[in-house]
Design brief:
single chain, alpha/beta, eight-stranded parallel β-sheet, 8 strands
Amino acid sequence: METIVSPSILAADFNILGEQIQEVEKSGAKYLHIDVMDGLFVPSISFGMPVIASIRKQTKLFFDVHLMIVEPIRYVEEFAGLGADLITIHLEAATGHVEETLDKIHTLGCKTGLSIKPATPVSELEPYLDKTDMILIMTVEPGFGGQKYISASTEKIRETRRLLKQHGLEVDVQVDGGITVDNVSLVKEAGANVIVAGSAVFRGDIRENVRTLLERGTLS
């Protein structure tokens, strides 16, 4: 499957966010990863709807919106209206409403993503695989940028790809957390094809960083 880099604006410099998004557009990245945190599901609070509305006006990048919020079904309509192209929810945050939430996202015309934390078994995804366009394996504990990649995540990525193949599904597998130019080939080999990177993109030359991630994340 095609390798896609999704730069996470959580690591961007908000003083020059517009300029940095322009650099992302020129870099070859197709997605823009937007983390929304509520301070409840995860300890941190990030940006919300006004920021997304603002940046939607200046870019046509694919908006990869990652909701780290409790009961995400309450807000998916608003995020779709703001221009989200894909909305990812957490299995653990949508207890009792996972299928309903995924169906609602599709009804709104967006692609669906379903994410699990590092401690959640891959097997818990199985009931919802046919309703997801992307599985997001968190490779750090969600909530903070700049964390180190959890090595046990590699086997979880492999397990996810095996499970999808067993069901005959061609679904994107995304990884988020601690991804660098040094381990991107590892996660790609394990079965991930959508790579979220924050610091690895926004620290230094954005265009060069994305090119390097794409090069190292593409297997021959």
